[in-house]
Each structure stands twice: as C-alpha cells, then as structure tokens.
Amino acid sequence: MMTITRREALKLGLLGGGLFLASIKFLRQGLASEPGASFQYQRSSAGTRAVLPASSQTGEAFQVPLPIAPVLQPKRRDETTDYYEITQKKAQVGILAGQKTEIWGYNGQFPGPTIKSRIGRKTVIRVINQLPEATSTHLHGMPSLPEYDGHPMDLVQPGGFKDYLYPNSRAATYWYHDHAMRKTAQHIYKGLAGFYILQDDFEDSLNLPSGAYDVPLAIRDCMLNADNSLRFTADGDMILVNGVPSPYMKVANRKYRFRILNASISSAYRLALSSGKDFIVIGNDAGLMSVPVKASNLAIGPGERYEVIIDFSQYPVGTQILLNNQFGKTESQQQPGRVTFLKG
User: Fold this and answer.
1) Residue 76 pairs with which residues in a beta bridge?
2) What is the distance between the alpha carbons of residues 7 and 19, in angstroms, rounded to a whole number?
3) Nearest C-alpha neighbor of 305 from the set 338, 328, 322, 281
4) Which residues contact 169 (CB under 8 A, 6 or more apart)?
5) pLDDT in tens, 199-239
6) Of 335, 311, 310, 312, whose CA–CA distance to 325 is shortest?
7) pLDDT (tens digit, 9 = 90+) per residue, 56-109?
8) Is the peptide bond before 152 cis (omega within 30 degrees of 0)?
9) What domains are defined for the chain?
C-alpha cells in the first residue's frame, strides 16, 4: 500500500466537496469445487450499472435493488443516553426471488437494523430473545465493560431480555452479532448480525460522503437446501450482499463511501479492480486512518471492516470494470460475476 498526503486527499475530493460518479463492488471466495466470483461495473449512455455474481441457484441476476438496512431509532433519549430496543426472532425472507427462506434476525432481518450513534452519547440496547435458543449479543470492536460485552456464557434465555450499555469511545464501523457459547457460528450464519456506526465531529469536518451516499455493505456466503432452507456450512456456494445475491443499486454522479463488512463465518476475500486502478481506503476496524491509502487490492477476513471510496468518473462511458477475487486459485475461480449500479 502507499499513503497519500492530506494535500493529495484534498485533490481527490476525499476531504472536499466536489461531485463525482462513484461505485464499488464486492467479493466472493473461490472454492475448490466452485468458481470464484468477481464483480462488474458498466457505464453507458443509458446509465451506469454494476452487478453481483449469482450462483447456479439464483436464477436471473440483477433484478433486485440492493437492500439497505433501516437505521434504528431510539425508543427514548435523555441528557446522556439513547435507548434502543431490538428483538431477535425468526422471519421468512426472499434470498431467492419468489422463494422464502427462514432466517434468525435482529428484528427479523439480515442485516439487522443499523444503529448510529455519536461520541459523547452513551447507548443502551435492550435485546429481546424470541428465538428457541439462548443468545448473547457482542458489539464487535467496542471496548465495553465485561458485563455488557456479550460473553459467550452470559446468555439470554428464550423469552428473556438484557440491556447492553455501550460507552461509544471511538468513532468507527462496528458490527453486532450473536456470541453464544458453541453457537456463535451457527447463529451468525442464520442471520444474527448488523452494523453499528459511531461518528464524531472530526469525521463530520472532512466532508466525506454521508447520508444516502454512505452505504453499509454486509457480504457473506451461504448455501441453500432444495427446500430453500439454509444449510450450515463453512463455505457457501452463493454470495449475499445485504442479504440477497446479485443486486443492483442506482447511483448519482458523485463519490460514494462504502462500509464493507465480511459477515461470513469463515470465508476470506481479496478484492481487486480489473482496471488496475487503486482503491482509496479511508478506514478499517479501528476507524478512519490518519491519511487515506491507495491499495491495488483489499484482503478482508471474517469480521473485518474496511471503508473505501471508488471514483468511476475516471472511466469512459461504456467501460466495464471487474472486481476480481484474487483468492481464486485458478482462472475458472476468477470468472467475472457482476454487481450493478445504475447511474440515475
């Protein structure tokens, strides 16, 4: 990786305000028996498209808009603290079009609702367990007190609840997930995971893409049985982005910030653009980096987070850019898949 100076960052528009067309894509791990995946961007006079790869089970790709998890609103606030409530429960969701799959989710969805807070505010989250198994919720990356850290044996039994207090000491992209003893992998695989984003005044001062242009992306693999139920496995044959395979997203003529979470239980990925252009990496698990970094590829393991900005205004209309998974060991494991962004 190479670093870039603050002056260069200003020229890139990372700390300034100009409008650009931006898009980014995501990953798939090449399996020994499964072609790896990559992603494709396409710009034309009709718009800009980028798309995610489908497995053999997914049918026609790029028909579903990229789902964005809703931002959870507090039940109440006082002078120091925001109070939230979230329920772990079963739900039927459409991973494949026209089919239903049972998941376990926070508020019955995957990813769970995004929780946003700020330095200087504390957060209390009441987690209600309406599942048939005991759970324990862990906020990954947050320096929490032991009694609120989601210890694997600090279990909430079915029908119970627990209030978790978080100090919100460092701005960063976190994720919350189940942490129950001997059940963590299975529960996360079933869908018990979501984003927790902590921001501060310093970040606000940088004029980074925000609001609708600051997009969380949870990437994970899975495998489905013939009846569309989830089959628990360490290596799935289908990649989901925010809970669905091969979505598309409409984008404006500007840069976007993407918060990428590898929510897989064991799969790792290495992302690289087929154009040879660099990513602009602005953050990782610990929050914003001291300076943006140019990287030709991005390796991301389970539980890791990266924040990146990609500027597609540098490409002519009609250019196709693939985001390949360099962990694919053979040429067949790096065949292009597609993720689609539509320039509005």
Assistant:
1) 83
2) 18
3) 281
4) 119, 142, 143
5) 999 999 999 999 988 999 998 989 999 999 999 998 888 88
6) 335
7) 355 566 678 889 999 999 999 999 999 999 999 999 999 998 899 999 999 999
8) no
9) 2-68+210-343 (2.60.40.420), 76-204 (2.60.40.420)
